[in-house]
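Lab channel / #folding
Pinned by the channel admin:
"Please post every new chain as: sequence first, then the structure tokens as a reply. Keep commentary short and put observations after the output so the thread stays searchable."

First post following the new format, from NK:
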Amino acid sequence: MSTASRSSWIGRRANSSKDAGRARTASRAHTVIVEHDDARSFALRAAYLHYLLQPKTKRKQYVPAPKPAARSHTSVGQLVQEYSSGSSSGLKLPHSFSGTVLERVSGVLTGSERLPGFNDAAVKRSFAEAYTAFSERNFRKTIDKERKLEPLILIFYSSASKAAMKGNAPDDNSWKLLPDRHLALFVRLVAAILRDIGHDRDKPELMSKLNSLEKKLLTNDQHLVNDAETTVEVIVPLSYDFKDMPLVQVVASIFGMSPSEAQTEINEKKQVWTEEAALQDLKSYQARMNSNLPGALLSQDFDLEESFTEWKESEAPQLSKMILDILMAKPELAKSSSGLEKALPNRPQSSFNDKAYADLSRALSNSTDGSLAFDPSLNLAALSLGDASIRTVEEDIYTFIPPEPRAYFKYILQQAMGFDQIHANPDLDYQPLSHRSMDLLTELCVRWRIPQSSRLIVLLEVAARKFVDRELVPEELDSVFDFIKSPLPEAKKAPHMHMYTAGLTEIDSSRWTVHDFAIYQHTLSSIHETLLRELYDLMEKCYDVKPPQIAAVLFILDHHIMQDPCFSPRPDAANEFAEHLSQALRQRAADAYLKYMEKEIPANKEEWEFGHVVGLGKTVIKLCDRIKKRYKKTPEIMGVNPLAILVQEVFPSFEEDANAIISTILHNAAQSEADIDIQDGFDLYRELVEIRQLHQESLPGSPFAFGIEELLVDFVWRWIRATEDRMEEYVDQAIKQDQFKVRTETPEQVPQDSERHSVSIIDMFMLFNQSIDQIFKLEWKNEEHHARFMTALSRAFSIGIGKYCELVDASFAKEMDRPSAEELAAQNQTTQEKWMQLAKDAWNNKDRVEPFQFYAESFVKLNNIEYAMQELDKLEKTMNPDACAEVLERIDGPKKKVRRPNKYTFTIKVVEAEDLKACDPNGYSDPYVVFGDEYQKRLHKTRIISKNLNPRWDETFDVTVQGPVNLIATIWDYDTFGDHDYVGRTSLKLDPVHFSDYLPREFWMDLDSQGRLLIRVSMEGERDDIQFHFGKAFRHLKRTERDMVRKITDKLTSQINSTLSVETLRHLLGTGGIGASVTSLWKKRASTVPTATPSQIESALTRLFAYFDENFAIMKQTLTEATMIAVMTRLWKEVLMVIEMLLVPPLSEKPSQKKPLTRKELDVVYHWLEMLFNFFNAKDEHSGEQLGVRAEVLKSPKWHELASLNFFYFEDTNSLIRESERMAAATAQRAQQALVQQSTQQNRLSAPPTFGASFGGAGAFASMGTIRRGKSIMMSRNLGTMRKAKEDKRREAQADPSDDMILRILRMRPEAVHYLKERHRQKERQAATAAAALIVKNSVSQGWGAGGAPAFSGNFGRNNLPRR
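Reply from TO:
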């Protein structure tokens, strides 16, 4: 809104208000002009009259006292003699009375006596002299002995006389009456004592004598203390001095008169401004009021006749009281004949009835002191003074009342407000009028008969004029409104006004005069227009840093103007104001934005940076926040929303400018090949998002000008790529700086589980969480971008975890494979010395095996892996991979499904080997396997299994390929001295085409020398998928943990193998060896075969248990509870495998040379199994707390297989074959049903759950191995899926029993060779049939689903490679 238009609008509003004012006051004949001197004169008259009519001041005047009458008795002794006549026993005092009297006399001296009259100074002097005499010891004894009152009276009178004589002249006899009065007080005190102690009833004669004595002492003087003179009240005559006239002083101050000027004018007008003139004014006013003549309010001054009548009725008693005040102030006006003739007209001309005259005469006649005694019952309301002569008066009809009382009152009020405003204390709250000015104005209203409503409206009218002239601020105007609407305080003497304490809201507007109502409406309209102009001016500055306050203006508009029933605004006023204010605010908002733009954005485009846009955005947001907070309670002001206007005006401009500036900056950076700082991009994004949020809240129907995420997404990708690039370096540095020690405050402190991992893993996950927080803090609004960000970060995390596992596992292996002290010592021995030491160690069977000296650092590394799995699981929940994958699946749709992976991950598990070549002189080998490809690149190396021709490794590794690769496995025999011996070699081609169904397979691969190797192979397509990356990371950790736990348990397996062996069994039972042969010869003569006792069986494991306990004690010092359970669980698995190898040979179609155990040996083995179960499932003897591994964990599928083995171990061969055939038939039937059931499913890319136990497995081609249930990466993407997969495997094994154990028993039966071969061929045929059926089903479903497209076209691409 321009200045010209604003001025014209304000001008129109001002003119309209003036026209309205003239219309409302058209009933007034003319505008009254009040002269300053006239107003001052009439104010001075009223103030002077107030002085004349005030109650007269009285003062005390001393007069000589009359001479006392002559005494009837000449001495106190004569009174005592009269007291003593009577019964002596009845006048006796109570026992110990002297002490009581002395105590009460002391109370008189200290002022604690309760009886009246004892606080006079002369009385206390007399009692002080008596107290001295009463305290004399001999006197007290005499009194207690004789119990007579006479000595007390005489001594007290003597003491009182002595005290009264002090300080008086010899010829002064005025003191002689005091001892009598003081003695009377003493007698009264004695009587009170007797009453208090209860002797008033039993000694009535004594009480009567005391009362008679007191009366006789006071016969001629009733006052106990009397002055020589007395006082009377007399009226102080008026001084007529300026200093004694408080209201005259107020008038002089308001009108700027000096005291001498005021005194001179009063002296000059003293003869005119008299009580008689005031009485005449009241007579004239009353007459004109009753006759409806000018000089008082007329009936036409009121809108309703009943209002006029009510006003007259309220005026009558007030006038009567005012007349009575004048007559009381000057009674001679009523007593003198001249005064009465003037004050009271003749009867024929008056309605003043006989009763009124009689009441007034009675009141005057009862006055004895020169003043009028007021009787409240005096009825002066009926007094109606004559008005015949008054009607003819045209001008100057009053002495004290001005021609236009309201106009004069308004003028004086203006002067008073101006004076009080100038002289007000700035530290106090604003008050419209001071107390002195209020007293003066109240007196003017009383003398000039101005109604209470007119008084208050005039005050508002004057305040409104001052507000329009900017002499008052809105807060002060609000105080004026509160003043006129609130009840006034009660005065000490009520002024003669009707409802003088009422606020304006308590007076019905219908009782106002027409003029007051019109003025009030005009005043409200004037204030309304002025407030709107004020609000308009204030709101124009609302976008300033420190805008002016508008609360007072809004409060007055809302509470005092709009809510007033007398106010009638124009219908279009609010809309017109809102329109003009909105235009002005839009212009101010645009100006403010241009100002900020010039300040924050450089003029040269080459200097533009993101920081400039951020600065401009911060300024805009700061302005919006400031406006939002400022107008939080009242967002809309008179229909105008400053925040909405600001947003509507500023945000579109900022968005367009920001888009142009950012695009220019990015273009310039691309041309100059310069990288913009990533943090600048993040800061810019946050600012833009905050502005967009405000935009959406304020402009819900208007879209944001540009896509922020699409414009700035490259900054996030740059940050993610940088994070991924430095991930491996960061992990490497973290491990190098880590000492892998528990984190305790002191070395002696036992570490908690939370302190048993080191800083490297903490730092790594701190990096992960900080990376996630960086993305989360951005609050990226594009869900596709966010899902892809999470995918990329999960890939980086997987890389980091893989690197960490690789480095930690290598360091762990180095620590675990370190040579022992004996091995280090053997390095300096000759070959002959080495063989001699080996022979010596073999011959000396040590009773105790020393535990392996584990490094604490090794256990900390294992703790780190366990901690990493827990933290990765938390991270997985935070990132919510399932939701991200769902978003990308929904967005990518079918195009993702047909995309072929460019990399494939083969997971190879080295299970076991069988019937290896013996390379050592002891008939065993120490085998390990090395895997490589055709380019001689080493892929994996297993651990060394000592002294075993049927080793079991159970190790897993991954191979990532882009095409076919030949996997070569070479088995070596580890030798401590010299080169390692070659055992055998085999190979397998890993072709993604052969694993296109993604089903896992088992392969028995024959070695080129002797024996064979069992491996399990599964394939998964490398995918850039968040679930895949998490699965890969979890598998890294789980595999590393498994390998590390295995390395730990490997250090203990040698003792397990040596203890749980055939040699131990034979030694325990006395069978086998040379000793056994000799024993057998002796047994032929014995009657019974010796058996092992339970204690002997248990003692065979004593050394093993002790060995376990020693190693567990070392482990518990560092390992966490979870890792300790993992180690014990793995060790339990090793125990089960050793026992299994002790019972049966491995599964194969070839017969075994292993001999079955005898019944006694089998019983011993199962006794050992029970003992070992109880050992690993240890519980506290007292509390029952679980200290070892839980029973449900120990009862694994292997444990159940061993438990079932006992039922078949000694069955005959034919029964075992029949049972095997029955199980095989049932398994085949279930497999066939599973295939039929799955024929209704499409695009299934994983093996059915029943394949694992059904066939032990078959692949797409029978010649390539058997199918077994595999552990895919997707099954390992969090701890939950891993636990679920393990439970599924356990339930699967229990629900679908296998005949593998029967086949392993049959390997030890030579007569079952033919069945073993036939059963092996049958399993291969079944597996091949199932695999072929699955391939045909997939091919047909894909071909039909594509409308006749070639087979495999849906899931397979060029070269028949699978797609995911």
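NK: The two ends are 66 Å apart (CA to CA).
TO: also worth noting, The CA atoms of residues 728 and 803 lie 6 Å apart.
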